[in-house]
Write a structure and sequence with these properties.
By secondary structure, the protein is an all-alpha fold. About 65% of the residues lie in helices and about 0% in strands. The protein has helices at about 5-15, 20-25, 30-35, 45-55, 60-65. The termini are close together.
Length: about 60
């Protein structure tokens, strides 16, 4: 099963952002980003789109990488 957690974490680290910085960019809390990266939760569609926009990737990349 493909998960969002690893691509999200890798892209965040590539941009040299903390979880809090990423959270602020997309309007969620640091705890939410942490849950996504640990695959405890999945983002709602609007947050998935925001992640793709801030990372400049497609939603498919995030979901199927």
């Amino acid at each position: 099963m493909n998960t969002l957690g690893q691509p999200c974490r890798n892209l965040r680290l590539l941009h040299k952002w903390t979880q809090e910085e990423l959270a602020n960019k997309i309007g969620v809390t640091k705890h939410v980003v942490s849950n996504w990266e640990r695959n405890v939760a999945r983002p709602e569609i609007n947050h998935l789109i925001s992640l793709a926009e801030v990372f400049n990737v497609t939603t498919d990349y995030l979901l199927y990488c």
